[in-house]
Arginine biosynthesis bifunctional protein ArgJ
Amino acid sequence: MSDKLSPLAPAISPALPDIAGVTCRIARARYKDWDRCDLTFVKLAAGTSVAGVLTQSKCPSPEVEYCREALKQGKARALIVNAGNANAFTGARGMAAVQKILSLTSAHLGCAEDEIFVSSTGVIGVPLPQDKAEAGLKAVFEADPCGWEDAAATIMTTDTFPKMATTSAIVGGQTVHLSGIIKGSGMIAPDMATMLGYIFTDATVEAGFLREMLSAATAESFNCITVDSDTSTSDTVLAFATGQNPSPALTSFDDDGADAFQAALADLCMQMAHLVVRDGEGASKFIEIAVTGADSDDSAKRIALSIANSPLVKTAIAGEDANWGRVVMAVGKAGEPADRDRLAIGFGGVTVARDGLVVPDYDEAPVAAHLKGSEIDIAVDIGLGSGRATVWTCDLTHGYIDINADYRS
Amino acid sequence: MSDKLSPLAPAISPALPDIAGVTCRIARARYKDWDRCDLTFVKLAAGTSVAGVLTQSKCPSPEVEYCREALKQGKARALIVNAGNANAFTGARGMAAVQKILSLTSAHLGCAEDEIFVSSTGVIGVPLPQDKAEAGLKAVFEADPCGWEDAAATIMTTDTFPKMATTSAIVGGQTVHLSGIIKGSGMIAPDMATMLGYIFTDATVEAGFLREMLSAATAESFNCITVDSDTSTSDTVLAFATGQNPSPALTSFDDDGADAFQAALADLCMQMAHLVVRDGEGASKFIEIAVTGADSDDSAKRIALSIANSPLVKTAIAGEDANWGRVVMAVGKAGEPADRDRLAIGFGGVTVARDGLVVPDYDEAPVAAHLKGSEIDIAVDIGLGSGRATVWTCDLTHGYIDINADYRS
């Protein structure tokens, strides 16, 4: 946890309703030399279905490898999250620590091991100490239930604020609730900034369909944010549906309410993803990059991410400089179909360049005023087709260097 | 030009020999509000052959588009380089400025327009002023010949030192000379940090074969360096062979001396590429990343560039932190075949992690001492095959943010 709150943190946190079938507890495992809760135990009602999306890293943590396997059966009874130690790149000893957690938790709950989901985030290369995990689990099993904010704070590492979101949908005339907690100060970082997101709903959703909806929502949210283009060994998003709401089960988009649920899930994922960007390491500006007119939606997304990941674009925004030349550069380097002479670029709704040229009588004043703010919009029209995508990032500041050049020392 | 010399600048610049058939002149076109030479005119003897590699950007400058066409005929009589204005994203007016330069220079030399090569580097989006180009050309045509160092200084923009390299080869019993000048403070930046490199040799080399050799040399040098992963709209490397040396003509690798010439060209390109990294914006450490044991050489290069472009790796080195966890992360995100449990990572010749684990009794002291230096070696063995690649980069420091967040303001 950083002492300094991100300037982009929301002024107020939402009040999350209880989700029937979900109980959170926290405890101190002291995975690091600190005096804070760092172990989260979420108990889930029997019958909870689960779906997940996991890092594409070729060097994932044992937790990620385990979850990938466990997700295949689609049921969940518990989630355990360790903060302070990523347990990544720890070989057999890392997997043994996961196994210890599984056996203790399955014994406590009387459930199958593969109904327990485990994540760890923090320092890489140090096996998760089994003795601390064991003592922590004993404490957390006995702990009183806690609220969402405590759970959201306990999964934090370099985050500067706990991140929570909630929404609802009408399914079969019943209001179902969706709430999520997430941590991450970027997509980034094996050390402490892994993105871990957990979504809980009382709706009844068949696991395969939950996976389908989660994948679609992720493509437009978590996969459209970037802080520094780095990908953690441990990135994880899990969605749990407890089925405790009397609404009818959702098994496909043919079901009444499925579209509403999908829309709510997409909204929740977007809220959560934006919170991660708002806590991007060193961030001072929240940047939305909308690309239109590309050859395809995929092409638009690659162009948008090329802009969002460009250190030169990100430092220009930090410097409050409407440097559209750097945007041209980032479009050009994306390798996607683009024609310099059809390109249009705008900041804050003001078109700066069009048809390969700065606009006649370009007035920088309204653009400069927009750049002074903390919410920056960059619009790029490629002028070729109808492909579109929107991604979100933050600026690149001295704060990022401070945090990451001095992290271990 | 920056006031502050890069701490990685070479202590002494090499003395470049004259290359028969090459004459440099410089003048003040005053493309910016400055009092320095910013226009370079290199006259080349009749019969000079030329080859080039140009930016892959989909939004290239008119100069790049023009050079791509002109290179097809393979002969050159002149090179014109403008510093201070990139003339990129300037539409028809930008192309008209190039045309003006071509017509004035071809009239002066009495040669075909497509034997004249033109580059521009500097601010993007402002058409190169034709009146300044015309006055500058008139002055430069009348100027006295100058030395290599003056030419190397005149093509600079944000560079902190002029960059020159030289070597030689024996071809048919004759010593042929190869010299190069280059500018760039990164691969980077449409504004002022475009990489422009020019190679001159008195050897006689058929244009198609020169292109073949230049492409091979580029793959191992210019395409193996990165400062911030950004690609300029104007990146250009041109090689000119004047044929003024009595050595026999080189037309294929079957010719005596062709291998020696290729080796010399590769050496020259490597020297030049390293100079660019040494002037990387804000750089305080020169980093060599050697990847071995990958599935293929291409795979090794992609992994090496993933490490070299990772902001987290680059900030760790800036912080003198042997943070091998971030190297694991960067290997994992490259998307190339890798097996966490076979990975080995070393710094400065000391193996830190092996077989998916930190080495037993890891002694950080020699590694920490290596990280304090200004030349950092990172070695990664993937443990799968025999693919290998080496790339070079610099660290990511507050200096980079200073330069790029404040550039236009």
Summary: The longest strand of chain A covers residues 174-183. Chain A has two domains: 22-278, 286-405.
